[in-house]
Each structure stands twice: as C-alpha cells, then as structure tokens.
Amino acid sequence: LGYTVIFLTGKLFTGTADGKILEINGDDIRVVATLGKPPCGKFDDEPTCGRPLGMRFDKDGSLVVVDAYLGLFRVNVETGKFVQLYSPETLVDGEQAAFLNDLDIDSDGTVYFTDSSTNWGRRYNRYAAMEAKKNGRLLAYNPNTKQTEVILKNMSFPNGVQLSPEKDFILIAELCTCKILQYHTKGPRKGEVEIFSDNLPGAPDNIRPSSSGGYWVGLATTRRAGKFSLLDYTSTKPWMKKLIFKVFGMKMRNVF
C-alpha cells in the first residue's frame, strides 16, 4: 500500500506500488483509478506506471491525489474518471518537479503540495536523502487561475504537509534535518517560516492531525541517544557520502 491511507464513510482509500488507487471496504477491494500506464512492478517502470502518494478529499467529495511522477490529479471515486491539475513537466520558477510527495487543501481550494527533490525521482529516494541538498519545494496550485507557484524552497527532502485547523499556517516535515517547519499562510506573519519542532527522534515522513490535538508524525528512520545514525554521521562528511554512493549504488536501499 501507499504512504497515505485516508478514511471516508467506512471506506479506506490508498495508493499502491503498481500505480493504482484503491478503495477498501471491509474485505472488498476496488480499483478506483490507474493514473499511469503499464507495465508496472519493476524499478524502471515507476516513472510511467506512477506512484500515488499524498491524497485528500476536497469539499466537493473528489479525491485529490499527488503522484510522485505524474502530477496532481482530481479523481471521481465513483466513476474513476480523473483530471490532471498539474504536470511535473511544467516549469515553476524555471524548474520541473522530480519527486512529488504529499498535499493538503486550503478552505479556498488551494492545494499545497511538496516536491521533495528537483533532482531525484521517488525510486532514488535514498540518493535524495543521503545527498540532503536543499532543492525541495512547497508548491501551491490555484484552482481559479489553474496556475502553480513556488511558496517555499531551499528545503532538504520535504514530504508531509498539514494545514492548521484555522488554516493560518502549514506544517512541512523536512526529512533530512529531522524538523517540522511552520509556514504562515495568513495574518500579519504571512510568508514567514520558522521551526515548529526540531531534533525529532527520527527522520519525519508524513504528518497528520491528532483527534486529541497536536499532530502525528511518521518516522522513516529513528535516531536514538547513543545509537549510530548514518544520516547524522554523514551529514558533515560529504566525502563519505560520495564513497557510499560509489560503493553501494542502488544497493543503498539495503544500507538504511
């Protein structure tokens, strides 16, 4: 299953590694839509097969999905028909997106979504994490103008996105720095960014609200006092990163 699972009227919706969006209702599993094209299942198939990641329902009941490779879509979960809202091939501030990740939707319909890296696609996520370059971005799709703009850039592998209950700020999980960033979307501090939570006990990967207040943050890897962390250890040793890249290549997915 995908990185995101959402719940609506007793049903679960999620994406899969072979590019499908599924509806799960008890023991029944239904394919809602397939955004990409076959073949699927192999490493080199991902860019065309697709990899649905972040998803939310909008106020009209449509499922808004961001696919790591294929872009931003609005999906009718009853008919399976979908419309592409944004293509990663579209230049935004002179750059294409390479690794779209998560999204949230504002009350006016604006869709905020992350581009974890402008260099590495999802299948090379270990490379992006080890490289830790600040080439990640927060993008915003305006449903009225149909245009997408860069809201925040120079982040190191941003992934999870979550608007506050009042919609006055947005939280972004920054994996490589083990931080949660807070970007103000409204009010006198609009446009400002600050650290919401620092030095997390692991690399954050996704963030969602808790029903009791606060937020749930998933961790892709853990950091423990007195325990070795490859990401921490190599963070100030670029020469070692190059050596690991050279020796392990794509086998790095088995290293951490």
TrEMBL record:
UniProt KW Cytoplasm keyword: no
Q: Which SUPFAM superfamilies match?
A: Calcium-dependent phosphotriesterase
Q: Which UniProt keywords apply?
A: Glycoprotein, Phosphoprotein
What residue stretches are annotated with the Strictosidine synthase conserved region domain? 101-188
GO CC annotation, single: endomembrane system
Q: Which domain of life is it from?
A: Eukaryota
Could you give a GO molecular-function term held by this entry? hydrolase activity
Q: Which InterPro entries match?
A: 6-blade_b-propeller_TolB-like, Strictosidine_synth_cons-reg
Pfam families assigned to the protein according to its UniProt record, in alphabetical order: Str_synth
Sequence similarity:
Belongs to the strictosidine synthase family.
The name under which this protein is listed is Adipocyte plasma membrane-associated protein-like
Lineage runs: Eukaryota, Metazoa, Spiralia, Lophotrochozoa, Brachiopoda
